[in-house]
Design goal:
The chain is α+β, with helices and mostly antiparallel strands. Helices cover 53% and strands 12% of the residues. A hairpin with a 5-residue loop joins β2 and β3. The longest helix has 20 residues. It is globular. InterPro entries: HTH_HxlR, WH-like_DNA-bd_sf, WH_DNA-bd_sf.
């Protein structure tokens, strides 16, 4: 007879943590968020800062990050017209976690 209580295998990864790593582990998402830690940036500024990302992939990732509520997009009427991206409050709240993860990586991972 079932008690109605779900039993969780203690060795199984927490579902929320798995979801976070799936999202943040998607190529470029974490890097874009970390780049925006220092403040708002234009599309071209992000492209230069991030490196070898294509315009279409950067655009897709920014749409995804905005859809998740981590980044806002503001069109600045020109001339010339430009678009600025910045972290939302939810995005800002992720920064201490990314800082801790970076500290851990510096200490425990051999970076090349």
């Amino acid at each position: 007879m079932s008690s109605g209580v779900e039993h969780h295998d203690p060795r199984a990864c927490d579902g929320a943590l798995a979801k976070a790593f799936t999202f943040l582990g998607k190529r470029w998402n974490g890097v874009i968020l970390a780049t925006l830690m220092s403040g708002p940036a234009t599309f071209s500024g992000l492209r230069r800062s991030v490196g070898s990302i294509s315009d279409s992939v950067l655009s897709d990732r920014l749409v995804e990050l905005a859809g998740a509520g981590l980044v806002t997009r503001e069109v600045c009427e020109g001339p010339p017209v430009s678009v600025t991206y910045q972290l939302t409050e939810a995005g800002q709240s992720l920064m201490p976690v990314l800082d801790e993860l970076a500290d851990w990586a510096r200490t425990h991972l051999t970076l090349q």
